[in-house]
Amino acid sequence: MQKVYGDDFFEQVYQVVRLVPKGRVTSYGAIAAYLGAKGSSRLVGYAMNAAHAQKPKVPAHRVVNRNGQLTGKHHFATPSQMQELLEKEKVKVENDRVVDFAKRFWDPMKELAL
DNA sequence: TTCGTGACAGACC
DNA sequence: AGGTCTGCCACGA
Q1: Cα–Cα distance between A110 and A112 in angstroms, integer?
Q2: Measured between alpha carbons, how far is residue A80 from residues A31, A37, A43, A57, A67 in Å?
Q3: Three-state secondary structure along A66-99?
Q4: What is the DSSP string of A45-58?
Q5: Residues A94, A39, A49, A61: is their CA dihedral positive or negative?
Q6: Hey, where are the domains in chain A?
């Protein structure tokens, strides 16, 4: 009850993830911070758990952890799909980790900014 | 309604 | 430098 925020928070996450340009990746913490939930990076990851259920395809494969590691690849249709999608975006993935993550990193707070 | 969990991250030892 | 634990907020049972 009293779900003032409710799934709205999830929607915010999806919105930000969808704004991530191709060839770019972001981190859970960055999204969480952008939403003002800095530290609640888990919520972002949790939200992604339902991302696949969203009609507008959510590029969850562009969302990785602080280390650039594809922690959630296992949640995709196939574990290899996440890496495959990233490579398709010209993002090199090696050892389940995004290569040049620092350069590929897309900060919503900085890009969307404000 | 309460307890436990979770695709993380930062702090502490 | 590295491993361990808690904190964050929301959802499921």
Answers
A1: 6
A2: 24, 30, 24, 18, 19
A3: CCCECCCHHHCCCHHHHHHHHHHCCCCEECCEEC
A4: HHHHHTGGG-SS--
A5: negative
A6: 8-111
Q: Closest nucleotide to A76's CA, by C1' atom? A: B7
Q: What confidence tens digit (pLDDT) does each residue in A60-112 have?
A: 999 999 999 999 998 999 999 999 999 999 999 998 999 999 999 999 999 88
Chain B bases closer than 7 angstroms to a protein Cβ? 1, 6-10
In this complex, the residue with its CA at the shortest distance from the C1' of nucleotide C7 is A39
What element of type H or E holds A42? helix A41-49
pTM: 0.88
Question: Separation of CA A82 and C1' B8 in angstroms?
Answer: 18
Q: What is the CATH number that goes with domain A8-111?
A: 1.10.10.10
Helix (H) or strand (E) holding A29: helix A28-34
